[in-house]
Amino acid sequence: MRKKERVLWFLYFFSTLICFFFGLFLSFAAAMLVAFTAFLCAIFYTLFLRFRKGRLRELAVDMDKLLHGDYHARFENYEEGETAIVANELAKITDTLQTQAEKLKKEKKDLADSIADISHQIRTPLTALTLTLETMGGQEEALKAKQLTRRIEWLIEALLKLSKLDAGTVKFQEERVLVCQMVRTAAAPFEILMDLRAQTMDTDRVSPDAAFLGDPSWSAEAIGNVLKNCIEHTGEGGKIWISAQENAIYTEIVLEDNGEGIDAEDLPHLFERFYKGKNSGSNSVGIGLALTRAILTAQNGTVFAENRREGGARFVLRIYKGIV
After folding, report:
1. Which helix (H) or strand (E) holds 301?
2. Dmax over Cα atoms in the chain, in whole Å?
3. Which residues pair with 302 in a beta bridge?
4. pTM as predicted
């Protein structure tokens, strides 16, 4: 019982007691009438309080549904009274939120469609330009131009993926993904580049049973962006280690290298979009790691980076089994 209710009951019984003794001065029957009337009033008031609390609990349940995105709560079912006033205002808020949510959903879809159209329009002349450059032979200028067009194409793809994630139009699959297979898929596009740099990759510490529930293609994209970062910041003859393990809470994937490491000032901002660290190359635009974080966040995962004691960078990716 709340403090205010205790005070009200005290005043009620105190007033009843005064009236009872006053009734005794008149007659015993008058005193009994006062006591009986007070008893009935107490019962009716108690029933009223219980009914009111019950309606408030129902209102609280409907409000909780509203907070969790259920816009079908029936606030109009509440009768006149204090709860009806609150319910009426909540019904107005519900209608407004539902209208805004539907409008936002449509705007996100329109944005994703527009970006896809723009990407297609840009990709078409790029393809034609690439084919034209290939006919120019092995000239140095043509080779540089080919590299630039590939770079532009990769940026367009990355920006398109980020935009789709922002718009919420990506439908992630939910299937059991074996980390060892995903790592092989993510590393395949970089095999030639690593051979040219005389770099090696050690995956012996990837548990063959480590797995998680997620989208294999998007997850491979996330791992590939981190691996690409490690390759670019590890010198000739460098080494990259990939390990993975699964426990009752999450599946953890760790990528390490013996490169130049990460500047302390860059660590808090490494996964921000378009952030370029002190050790970034001239071609870096700060997209890859931001895309990795967006993909993992959408799959109930996290990522962070740190420096190895032995030198080099260490990236830790975790996909959780429950909500974090």
Report:
1. strand 301-307
2. 122
3. 318
4. 0.60
Mean pLDDT, range 52-57, rounded to an integer:
72
**Angstrom distance (rounded) from CA 217 to CA 47:** 60
pLDDT digit string, tens, across residues 274-306: 777 766 665 666 788 988 999 999 999 999 999
Which of 133, 158, 128 is closest to 147 using CA atoms?
133
| Residue 317 in tokens | 């990716």
Rounded Cα gap, residues 222 and 280, in angstroms: 19
Residue 123 has pLDDT above 70, yes or no: no
CA dihedral 183→189→191→197, nearest 10 degrees, is -120
- Determine the Cα–Cα distance for residues 240 and 237; give it in Å rounded to an integer: 10
pLDDT of residue 51: 74
Q: What is the arrangement of strands in the sheet containing 313-320, beginning at the earlier edge strand?
A: 200-206, 239-246, 250-257, 313-320, 301-307
The per-residue pLDDT for 180 is 95
Other C-beta atoms closer than 10 Å to the C-beta of 57 total 10
C-alpha distances out from residue 289 to 188, 230, 277, Å: 19, 11, 12
Residue pair 317/296 in contact by the 8 Å Cβ criterion: yes
Helices 140-167 + 82-134 axis angle, to 10:
170
What gap in Å lies between CA 309 and CA 312, rounded to an integer?
Answer: 8
